[in-house]
Write a structure and sequence with these properties.
The chain is built from 5 helices and 12 strands. Helix 3 links the parallel strand 6 (about 90) and strand 7. By secondary structure, it is an alpha/beta fold. The chain has a domain at about 15-145: P-loop containing nucleotide triphosphate hydrolases (Rossmann fold, 3-Layer(aba) Sandwich). The chain has helices at about 25-40, 75-80, 100-110, 130-140, 180-195, and strands at about 15-20, 45-50, 60, 65-70, 70-75, 90, 115-120, 140-145, 145-150, 155, 160, 175-180.
Length: about 200
């Protein structure tokens, strides 16, 4: 479990990234950290990309229905306007944001914000997803979570798309994706290449 570092308002901030496959608990962990910050009486703002409307138009919602209110953003620059005088910024599904999120996260941390970002580190093909590898590189703290492989029961860190739909961004949940281990993922990808 991640233990939050000691921090006082007015000090330099930092960046935390929570990553992993689908169904690994990234959003649950983000919500847990944000709730702790709220309990501590810190000024918290929470954001999510407009395209993530699977469970709720505005709230961040985990697969097991934990939820926390959030503000919808369409691009990373909106964060700089909406996160004025804030001590903690939470961002879910950061893989869907533009590359500007890297500079924005740095700017917020340099202003003294604790920036907590959650997102998929890999897409359905097993490649780094959007700005996530860059966010992982600049973060002071990285938490990589794992799901359970639905086929073997082993540790899963791949998000396997059940249907061979093209395009990196296809928003879905259990209907379209399943968490799988390395062995299952690469066997399934090899089958698709041979079709």
């Amino acid at each position: 479990m991640f233990i939050e570092p000691h921090w006082k308002p007015g000090e330099i901030g930092w960046i935390e990234v929570i990553c992993g496959s689908m169904f690994s608990g990234k959003t649950e962990e983000l919500i847990r950290r944000l709730r702790r910050a709220q309990i501590a009486g810190l000024k918290v703002e929470i954001f999510k990309p407009a395209m993530d409307n699977r469970y709720d138009e505005e709230a961040i919602v985990s697969h097991n229905q934990q939820r926390i209110p959030s503000t919808i953003i369409h691009n990373s620059q909106e964060l700089l306007l909406l996160a004025q005088d804030v001590e903690v910024v939470g961002i879910d599904e950061a893989q869907f944001l533009d590359m500007g999120i890297v500079e924005v996260a740095n700017e917020l941390a340099n202003r003294g914000c604790r920036v907590i970002i959650a997102g998929l580190d890999m897409d359905y093909t097993g490649k780094p997803f959007g700005p996530m590898p860059y966010l992982l590189a600049i973060a002071e703290f990285v938490t990589k979570l794992h799901a359970v492989c639905t086929r073997t029961g082993r540790m899963a860190h791949y998000s396997f798309r059940k249907e061979p739909i093209e395009g990196q961004v296809v928003v879905g949940a259990q209907d379209l994706y399943e968490p799988v281990c390395r062995e299952v993922f690469w066997k399934e990808m090899a089958k698709r290449k041979n079709l």
